[in-house]
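Journal club side-thread
Mid-discussion, someone asked how the predicted structure for our own chain would compare to the paper's figures. Pasting it here so we can look after the session.
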Amino acid sequence: MNFLVKLEKKIGKYAIRNLPMYMLATYAIGYIVQLINSDVTFFLSLNPQAILHGQVWRLFSWVLIPPDSGNIIFTAIMLFFYFSISRTLEQTWGSFYFNFYIFMGLIFTVLGAFCMFGYSELFLQEKMAFVNANMQMAYGEIPAIYGGSWFYATYSTLFSTYYVNMSIFLAYAATYPDMQVLIMFIIPVKVKYLGIIYSIILVLEAFGMGIMGLFVIGASLLNFVVFFIMTRKSLRITPKMRARQKDFRKKTAAASQARKVAKHKCAICGRTAEEYPNLEFRFCSKCEGNYEFCQDHLFSHKHFKRSDM
């Protein structure tokens, strides 16, 4: 049995229902915070150096950094689009599988940030010193609350929910390859072609950013590869099919229970111990045969004789 199928049976009931709505609310909070103070991004970002120096809230607060903060109308349209396809995936896969996909993407992103930190500490000391010196000359000393290093403060802002959303779109394209979307609300294009185009763009973008791009983009999209390898069989069974299977098993078990022979049954009135648990049942020693009677008929019944049978 697939690992995720077993895991769903154990903890599936704890899955967050309607997770896309919570994700949308998180983005909305992030936009409001950025409108109030754009520098707050340095305070919320996934900065591994700052985390190791006690700023542990960054392990979670980076999800407040919205995927885009440009044109508000374009952003609203894109957020509605991602919300729509997220709802579709949740309804198709079920809440547990969608939760697993999203949280695995978040965890891989955090791991990617720490891999970037380890690589930088080992191989990029000169680059770090150069960036910190130039940024300090231009903007002064960076506050400790913002991470204490211009190098990590700059690269850490790249770890946002943008690439997690991209992984949602790739998952949608893989699940509904022949679904059509309207480019510019006019041109119909199948999602699988957009998925291929976006994949190529992401690969080129990752290599264009150098080794940092592999950490930032690769970590965020690794969940797409891992998830579809793990669920190549189990996703063939939709939530509706699983619900029908569960209902069928429940009805089969009930029918099987109904067919069971009662342990105690009165030979006169037919009442059973299952139906009347407070009744007492006894065998009659004067009856010829295996006859049992309830307490109301134990002494009042006519004794059975083999000659009467």
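Post-session note: Residues 251 and 257 are 10 Å apart (CA to CA).
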